[in-house]
């Protein structure tokens, strides 16, 4: 089968950053699905895994952490899907990735693809959807179905992949959304997705949020990086919560959090699959829920750019776009 792989961890400008290879087609067992991959999307985690380092792989390594496709075969213990089902999912960072024609994935982290979306549109959603959903509803404890209607949330990095779906999930839950964007193009993007207010994270966020009439906000999601920690601590309400997806070595003074009895949560969407947690199936459930919301017209895809086909040259282009840090929404690569 065709695959895009790497043996050396190189700058994306290097022609050998990715290689077109032919690999054996895997066979499913247990709760695994064998998925014929139709489209993949590129996330910051892809570029971080591929980032230059001295490691050399003895055999080609396939990465990739988002896909949509069709179930080709199933393991003997599969109960949720059958051959021919259209699916979308983000995979497992501890297993071979999605940048290959046929991919094995545990059914418990796979969702039914939205019927109203094509494969490219669907591939834009899984990883970021899981991240934002878990950040809001599992980590911060916001009620998905509107019991916390009217509460405020500041989404730092609103125009990125996670922020783009996060705005929609927060609005669906009835929250007042303050999203950050730093360019006119991305400001228009987040407003179109439903943000009630927009502030610029490259300027004084505390001043801007308070100018909107908010002394504090109920929830804060840091979906870009922890340089905004001090502003987040200042803005979070007493007994409120901050969630972050950024792994950081930056100083994070905690005195302000203690004085407010505020909470800090980390979101890592691979944790359930990596640790085989008893509630792994919650990712299947949430992806299926979001697919229904998409088909009902309440949530839309965050796709912005589609490249084709899925090969080494196109993958380098896609990684370069994501590394530039100016993409709004998601970059997808479609079709082998």
UniProtKB/TrEMBL annotation:
Enoyl reductase (ER) domain boundaries: 13-333
SUPFAM superfamilies found in the cross-reference section: GroES-like (SSF50129), NAD(P)-binding Rossmann-fold domains (SSF51735)
Listed GO CC annotations: cytoplasm
Principal location listed in the UniProt entry: cytoplasm
Location(s), subcellular: Cytoplasm
Classification via CDD domains: AL_MDR
Keywords annotated in UniProt: Cytoplasm, Metal-binding, NADP, Oxidoreductase, RNA-binding, Zinc
GO molecular function: oxidoreductase activity; RNA binding; zinc ion binding
One Pfam family named in its UniProt record: ADH_N
Highest taxon in the source lineage: Bacteria
Family: Belongs to the zinc-containing alcohol dehydrogenase family. Quinone oxidoreductase subfamily.
Subunit and partners: Homotetramer.
NCBIfam families: adh_fam_1 (TIGR02817)
Protein name: Zinc-type alcohol dehydrogenase-like protein
